[in-house]
Design a protein that fits this description.
The chain is α+β, with helices and mostly antiparallel strands. The chain folds into two domains: 31 residues; 200 residues, no CATH class. It is built from four helices and nine strands. The chain is globular.
Length: 239
């Protein structure tokens, strides 16, 4: 008799947890936005977003990783759109990103692991054309890239990578060799240049930009047409 009661209790608990889990999944799915980014009429200043999501100030270009949670960010910056990243190859959990309109132009993207902790943050003022990077070649340095794209997505591994978003939805990737290290300063020299468009090509090297839907990318002229120069002195590191 006791065994039967315990079995029935376990079965009821299993059903209850299943219903709760389905409800939570449904709530997450319902929170995903379907609106176009043009519906983001309220904007935030770039320095506010940088300070919160990257602990980055205007005068100190050093990024400090902090465990920011999605629910806390909602309270700080309530005006955003939430997307679910397709075909995530980074995590076993679902990957999402929120989109914020930036007062200085463009959009700010924050990536979340299963709507829990922040895993990455990226700012895009505009996209680029491949011809914008025609002055770069093997042997160029990181600062040469920054003259074109002041805030590339950067992965600081022993063989570092940077990614810049092209208007085609592809990524312009530079691979670097690091040298020096005296006084904490490394020289980053380009040893390879390529264009990537598949998630499998960026596994382990960041490349979160590739998860952003093309419809969510900022519109506007590229650096070669005279835009984006105002941020040339704004150093961007890994979030």
């Amino acid at each position: 008799m006791n065994i039967r009661i315990r079995t029935m209790t376990l079965a009821v608990m299993t059903v209850f947890l299943f219903i709760v889990g389905c409800g939570q999944k449904s709530n997450v799915q319902n929170s995903v936005s379907k609106e176009n980014i043009s519906s983001l009429t309220n904007s935030y200043h770039l320095h506010e977003l940088d300070l919160y999501f990257m602990k980055k100030t205007r005068n100190v270009p050093v990024i400090v990783w902090t465990p920011i949670q999605y629910e806390d960010a909602r309270g700080e910056f309530p005006n955003y759109l939430l997307r679910k990243a397709n075909d995530s190859v980074y995590y076993s959990e679902d990957l999402y990103y929120s989109v914020y309109s930036v007062e200085e132009g463009g959009y700010y993207y924050v990536f979340w692991s299963n709507l829990g902790f922040k895993v990455w943050a990226i700012y895009l003022k505009h996209t680029f054309e491949l011809r914008d990077f025609e002055t770069l070649s093997i042997g160029s340095i990181y600062q040469d890239l920054q003259k074109i794209d002041p805030r590339p997505e950067t992965n600081a591994t022993p063989n570092s990578f940077t990614y810049s978003m092209l208007s085609t939805g592809e990524l312009f990737r530079c691979t670097y060799e690091r040298s020096g290290g005296e006084g904490g300063y490394y020289q980053m020299t380009i040893i390879d240049i390529s264009v990537v468009n598949e998630l499998e090509q960026v596994v382990g090297t960041a490349g979160y930009l590739l998860y952003i839907e093309k419809e969510d990318l900022p519109q506007g002229v590229s650096a070669a047409q005279g835009n984006g120069r105002a941020l040339q002195n704004d150093v961007r590191e890994v979030a």
